[in-house]
Specification:
With 294 residues, the chain is mainly alpha-helical. It has one domain. Helix content is 71%, strand content 3%. It has 11 helices and 4 strands; from the N terminus they run E-E-H-H-H-H-E-E-H-H-H-H-H-H-H. The strands form 2 sheets. It has a two-stranded antiparallel ribbon with strand order 1-2. The protein has a two-stranded antiparallel ribbon with strand order 3-4. Helix 1 runs parallel beside helix 5, helix 1 packs across helix 9 and helix 2 packs across helix 9. It is globular, with a radius of gyration of 19 Å.
């Protein structure tokens, strides 16, 4: 059976690849949206944090024999702690000045991280094995579904929806939103706003690291893996609406699917389709699809 002259197995396989890429877009743009929406920081170091998360998993397995499942816990905690250190020592001095300084600082941090990891690991990619429990594939009849890719989609959706629920539907999320809009008032109620801000940045960094661990068995781990992805992720955030958490999740998944379909029908445009969509959206709705107009 063919779809528009393309065998259904090839069509669905490309659609699955697009959904997997969209899951990474959603998780990374989610972390960016959390940090920008709650702290107002354009975090250009997010791709570097994603890369560091993948390397933490690689080093944990290679040097200490720590398997994938423990790496899913260790990497976000380690990179989240690094995010807390960055926020407490550097970013906290920039909140009351022009946001461009935060962008320049985090861009510089990304370059430093890439240089350090390139010096330690070189530019050639490192491979990370698929965990034994998720090896193989499941035959669905109309296509063969790799188990690990199915896990990536499921885990990404669970994390994204859980984060959205935490921030939009819980008391803690209400405190976070209130603390960024009127910190003096929230502080008057006995809530430690600086600690809340610090933990928010750490959580955003941890989300990036988690995405890195999920990506490690799918792609080659290199010092440039974050910078190769971060521009597309920023486009996803802009299309969804800067600071919109739900917008980042839905837009990331949708653009991954659109990119996958473009590779089927017009491969030459697959590398620019996200940016074409961004240009069209910004012309029609400058605040993004889910963003709030100023």
């Amino acid at each position: 059976m063919d779809i528009f002259g393309i065998p259904i197995q090839a069509f669905l396989g490309q659609l699955l690849l697009g959904l997997v890429n969209g899951s990474f877009y959603a998780m990374l743009s989610l972390g960016l949206a959390v940090i920008f929406g709650l702290l107002g920081i354009v975090n250009f170091a997010h791709g570097a944090l994603y890369m560091i998360g993948a390397y933490v998993a690689f080093v944990a397995l290679d040097k200490f024999g720590i398997n994938y499942w423990f790496a899913l816990l260790i990497a976000p905690l380690a990179v989240g702690a690094l995010g807390v250190l960055i926020e407490r020592t550097l970013l906290k001095h920039l909140y009351k000045i022009d946001p461009i300084y935060g962008l320049l600082l985090t861009f510089g941090l990304a370059l430093i991280a890439e240089g350090v990891f390139r010096d330690q690991f070189g530019v050639s990619g490192q491979s990370y094995p698929v965990p034994e429990l998720l090896q193989g594939a499941t035959n669905l009849g109309f296509m063969v579904l790799p188990n690990y890719r199915a896990w990536v989609v499921f885990a990404s959706l669970a994390v994204c929806l859980g984060t959205w629920f935490l921030i939009e539907r819980t008391r803690l999320g209400a405190y976070l939103r209130a603390g960024t809009e009127n910190p003096a008032l929230v502080q008057a109620f006995g809530i430690n706003v600086p600690v809340m801000v610090m933990l928010t940045y750490g959580a955003g960094a941890g989300l990036a690291a988690l995405a890195g661990v999920l990506a490690a068995p799918v792609i080659q781990i290199t010092p440039l893996m974050g910078s190769n992805l971060i521009i597309v992720v920023f486009a996803v955030v802009v299309i969804g609406g800067m600071g919109s958490i739900l917008g980042s999740i839905l837009t990331g998944l949708a653009l991954g699917l659109i990119e996958g379909l473009t590779k089927v029908f017009y491969p030459e445009a697959s590398s620019i389709v996200v940016f074409v969509i961004m240009a069209i959206v910004l012309m029609i709705r400058p605040a993004g699809l889910f963003g709030k107009e100023a």
